[in-house]
Amino acid sequence: MSKPPLGTANTDYSIDVNSFRDGKLSIEQQIEIYVHDLFNVQDNKDISLDEVLAGIRYVMDFRIKGDRQDHLEPELMKRLCEGLLLCTGVTSGHFLRKTTTEDADTAFFLFGEFLEEVEEFRVAVGEKPAFDLQQSLKIHHRCQPSSTNEQKQAAIGMIHLLTTLFPQFHDWRDLVKEREQGDMEVLLSSELAKDIEKKEVAKMPQPSAPLLPPPSLYFDKSVKKLLKMFPNTDPDKGLPSDVVPMLREQYGQNKLPEPPKPSALKMIWTQLTDFMVIILIIACIVEAAEQEFNSMAVLLVVIVLNTVIGFTQEWKASKTLEALMHLSTPQATVIRDGVQQTFSAADVVPGDLVVLDEGEGIPADLRLIEVSQFEAEESILTGESLPVAKTTDAIKAKVRKIPLGDCKGNAFMSTVVAKGRAKGIAVRTGEQTEIGKISSAINASSKTKVKTPIQRKLSRLGKYLVLIAIVLCVLVVVIGIAWKKDARSMVNVGLSLAVSVIPEGLVAVTTVTMALGVRRMAASQCVVRTLPAVETLGSVTVVCSDKTGTLTEGKMRTTQLWTSDNSLYNFTDGSLDPKEGSISVEPSELRKRMIHIHRSAKEEIERSPTPTTAADYAAMKPHVIPRSDDNQIKANSNMLYSILVASLCNNSSIRQTEENNEWISVGDPTEVALLAAANQAGLTREYLLETLGLKKVFERAFDSERKLMSSVYTLKGQEEGEFVLCKGAPEELLSNCSHYAVGSADNKSMNLEFLTENITTSPVDDVFATNVSDENSAMAQKGLRVLGFAIKKVKATGKNDPENESAWKEDNLVFLGLVGLIDPPKKGVSDSVAICQEAGVDVIMITGDHVETATAIATQLGIIRPNVPGMSRAILGRELDLLSDDAIVELNPFPNVFARVSPDNKLKIVTALQKRGELVAMTGDGVNDAPAIKQADVGVAMGMAGTEITKQAADIVLVNDNFSTIVAAVEEGRHVFDNILKFIVYLLSCNGAEIFLMLICTAADIETPLTVMMILWANIIADIPPAMALGIEPQEVGLMSRPPRNPKAGVLNRVTWTVIGLQALLMAALTIAAYTIAIYVEHYPVEDARSLAFACLTTIQLLHGLLSRTISRSVFETGIFGNKWMIGALILSYGFMLMGIYCPGLNDWLELTPVSGWSWIKIVVCAVVHAICVEGGKLLLRYCGGSI
After folding, report:
1. Exactly one of 105, 546, 823, 937 is catalytic; which is it?
2. pLDDT at residue 1044, rounded to an integer
3. 103 catalytic residue (yes or no)
4. At what angle do helices 1086-1107 and 1124-1142 cross, to 10 degrees?
C-alpha cells in the first residue's frame, strides 16, 4: 500500500521510538543494503520492489523522521537518490494513456521525505539538473485530471520542496513537462494546494552556509536563469572584487593538478634495481672479487644495454603527463567591477565573466551568454577535427551528461577559440573542469605503478635464482670442507657456480623478442607503444570494448520500414550507391496469418475479417520489389508517403564525386541512412524537387524536448495546399496524430497524380496505439533505432508568420509507419568474439548507447548468449552508480554489457575487474577515456577516432579501429609469451647443466671441469644467438585454443621446472661421462679434459636449442628447417665455439686448448644420445597430458 503523499500524514504510531535510537552507522548499513537491493531487485527472485521500498519506509518512519538522524554519509545518499529516481518514473499503459505504478508512487513519497529530513540527500538532489529531475520524477504524470488525490498532493508537495530549497529550481516549469504544465498550473491554484500550504508540511531548516551553485555545465539553463543562479555576476560588469575571495575559498584555485615530474636518475635507479639486473650486478662483483676483469666486462655490457633500453621506454611514456600539462591556459581576460582586465587563469573563479577572442585559449569551463560568429576547436576533448559553432541556447536533454560535442552553449578549458568572439560565465574551474577531471584520474593511476605480468614473473624467477645461487655457494663450501679442501678455494668454486646460475642473456633476449613482436603487430595495423604490453596482451582474460566504430561499422543504415497497413519492408546492403541492394516486402495479408506477429485479440476481432475465399499464399509470400528502367519502385501508398518523408524531412545530402565516382555523404548519420533508403527506392531528392516540383517553404528543427522534426512543402502549380512531413520519436509522434493511413489496395508510382490524391485514413484508437507500441518494441529488441513517420495535407491561412502558422503545427497528423535503423556489426567481428571466447578471454561491451540497442548488437556478436548461464546480463551506467566499489566487484554474474556509461563508469569497471583477479584490456577514443585506458593492464586507443592524449596514455594503438585487430594482437601476445617461455626453458636448462656439472664434480672430489671464463663464453655463444632465434620462432598450431595463463602463476610451473631439471641433468651427465673418461681412463691433462668438456657441453647445448623450438611437440613434426634463423644462429654459435678452441690468442684468453678428432667422435655420440632422450621425454609429456 502506498504511503500518503507529502504533507498529509498525521498518523499516530503507538511505538516507543527511543528503542530505535541505535546509531547512525546502523542506519547507514541498513540503507546500504536497500540501495543494493534496488539495483538487484530485477535479477533477485527472492525479493520484490515492494519489500525493498517497505524496508526503506521502516527506516524513514522509525529511525530518521523527526530530527532523529538528519545527517548521513554523502556518497550513500547519492546512491540512494539515484536508486529512488530509477523507480519514481515507472509507468504502465500504452503511448496515449500512461500512469505511474504503485511502487513508483511509494518511491516518489520516500524521495520527498528524504528531501525533508536528510541534509546530505538535499545536497545530492541539488547537484542534479532540473531536466534530469523532470525526466526521473515524472511529476507530469501525477498532476493530470485522472491522477489520484494522493498523487496530486505528492506533486504539489514535491514542487514546493524543490522550489523553496534550491535557487536553481525556483521556476517549477523546469520540473514539469511542457505539455502538462497547464494541468500543474491548475493544480497549484487549487484549494488542495492552498490547504497543503497552510499546514506548512514542506517547511525545511535553512542551511547555515550560503548556497552556491555546484560546479556544472548548466547546458540546460537559459542565460536568464543562469544569471539568477549567479546573483553576484552582472552580464556587463562581471563580479565585484569583494566576493572573489569567498568564491575562491569555496571552489579553490583554477589550476590543473600537477603530475609527478619525471626524474631521470629515478628511472635509471628503477632499471638498475630490477631483480634480474641485480643478479647480473652481483655476478660482476663476484668476477671483480675473483679478479676476472674480462668476465666482468662482458657482464657490464649486458647491464648497460638493458638499462639504456628500459630507460628510453620509460622516459617516452612519462611525456604523456607532460603533454597534458601543456594544455593549461596561462592567461585570462575577465571583466570585474566593470573593468576588463587580463591576469593569470589560476585566479578565475566560478561566476567570473570571461571574454574570449579569436586565437585565445579558454581558461575554464564556461556557459556562454553572448556569442558573435563564435567557433571553438575542441578536438582535444572530442576528437572532432572541425571547429564547433557555439550558441547561447539552452539544451534540453534526458540525461545529466550529454556528449561534449553537443554542448553548444559551453566552452571548455584548454580548448581554443577558432573564430569570433564571446562572453561566458565560468561554471567549473580547476579539477572540476573536463580536462581537470582527466588530469586527476591520470595522476592517480600514475602514483601506483603496476608491473606488467612478464615483469612480475621475471622478477619472481630472479628471486628463485638468487635463492638457488646462495644455496649452491653454501652447499659447495660445506662439501669442500667435508673433503678436507682449502676453504678459500671452495668459496671461489661456489662463486663460479653462482655465475652459472645467472642466465646473462635472459633480459636482452626478452627485450628483443618483444620488440620483434611489436614489428609483427605493426604489420597487422596495431602500433605498440610499450614493449611489455606485447606479452601482457597474450595474458589478458577480459577485453572491454567500445561498441560504435570498434565492434560496429560506426555508420547508420536503414533495415526495416513498417507501415500502418501492417506491411513490413526490408532494406538490404545499406550502401550509399542507390543501385546497390534491394527492397523486399512482407504484405499485410501474409503478416496477419503469421503466428509470430503479436496482435491483440480485439484487433483480431475488429480488423481481421473472416476470409471468404482460400488464401493465395504464393501471391502473399515475401518478395523483392522490382524496379523500373528509371530505378523507381511501385508500392503501396503508405510506403511511398513514408519514403517521401524520409527523403524530404531531411537535411543531409549524398553525392558522387567526379574524381573517383565515390559516393560521399554530409550530415547527420541517421538522416544519411534515411536518404540512402529513399534513393534505393528510386525516389531521389532531385526527382521529388526538380521533376515533381515540390518546394520547401518552412522547417521546424528537431530538439530533444519535442523529439520531432517537420518540414513543409508546396507542390508547384497546385492550389491544394501544403504537405507537412514529420518524423521523430514514435511515442511523441503518435500522440500528435489523430489518424493513421489505411493504405491503397494496389501498388502506385510516385507522380503528380499520386501527390494530388487524398490520403485514406482511419482514427487512431487504443488498438492501433497498442499495435504501434508492439511493432516499436519488436524493432527495439533487434537493436534498431526507431523513428516514426507522419504526414498531413493542409492549406495555410497566410495570416501569420511561418512559425505561428496554425496549419503547419505538429498536430492532427496522419501516422504512416515506423522505420528501424542500426549501426551494423563489422564483418568478421562475431568470428573474432568467438575466437576470444574459445581462448578463454571474456569480451565485455561498454557503450554510451541505449541498453536495448547494445544488448541486441551484443547478442548478434555472441557477447551475450541468452541460453548460457552467466552470459546474458546487461546494466546501465546509472545503475552502476548505485553500487559501491566492493559491490561492483562482487557482481555475480559480472555483466557482459554496460550501456549508457560515463568515463567514470569505465574506470570503475576496469578497477573492479582487476580486483577480481582479471587482466584487462580496455579500448577508447576520446580524452575522457584516458583514465580507464591508463588504469587497464593494456590500454588500447583508436588510431582513426582517438585523440592524441588517449593515444599517449595507451599501450597499444589500433590503426584501423577494428576489434578483429585486438584479437590478432592477443594472438601475437600469446605467441610472444610462448617464445619467451621457450628460450627461458632453453636458457635455464643450459645453465642448469653447468650447475649440475660443477656441483656433481665438486661433490665427487673431481677437478672442476670449467673455469669461470669458459662458463661466461659458453653462456654468451650458446645462450644468446639460439635464444634470439627462439624469439622469432613461428607460431604454433592451436595457440588460441588454449585458456589464458593464470596472471598469478609464474613463468614456469611444475611441469616446466621438471623438464628443465631433467634436461639439465642429462646434459651434465653426458659431459661428466666424457670428462671423467678423458681424465681417469685416457689420462688427459686437466687443461685438455676441460676443453673436451667445454666442447661437449656447448655442442649439446646448441643441439638443444634446435630441440627447444617446441617444448612438448617433436622437432621432426614442426620441421627441422622451419626456423631458418635458428639454423643461422647454430652456425654462428658453433663458429664462435671453434674460434675459441682453435684460434691462437683467443683460446689462451679463454683458457682452452685444441680438441682432438677422437674427442669429437665422443662429443657426437653424446649429442645423439641427448637428442634421443629429449625427444623421448616429449613423447612421454604428450602421453601424460602435461601442461606447460
Report:
1. 546
2. 80
3. no
4. 180
